Amino acid sequence: MADERTSVLLIGGRSGVGKSTVAAAVHDLLVGRDVPHAVVEGDALDLAHPTPWEHGVAAANLADVWRRYRSLGHRRLVYTNTVSVLEADVLAAAVGDQPHVTSVLLTASDGVARERLRRREQGESYDAHVTRSDAAAGRLEAAAGDDVHRVPTDGRTPGEIAAEVVALAGW
């Protein structure tokens, strides 16, 4: 009997590491292979002011969104969020059905992350993103366990990274 549990690929990492870009490349790769899946940008699940993260809004919204995808037969979920790899248990509970979880921490050097941020942020916004990105990089590296796969992004194409993370998930 086939395992019908959900398979979740968590993609985390600092700002400017390429989470959204890699998720889009994973999507393209899976579409090319005709593999059913859904991609959810975690930041969009609780993007509000004041920030509602302490109320578990993102996990509750993920549960609602995933329930709809599951009802359509989806079993593979790609989820991106800076700290997703630190919240694997909470996200797995939101998805339900004791999912298979593959956690991937994308890494980038400070210089590469700043260059990528410079393409999308300017002025004070750039400065704030760099500060948060640097802090997140240190926190993620220190707090992510040995079960989290570290995948470097410097000097690599999104397609190359996507192929690696899809292989790590066993898809």
From TrEMBL:
Domain of life: Bacteria
InterPro entries with a match to the protein in the record: P-loop_NTPase (IPR027417)
The protein, known as: ATPase
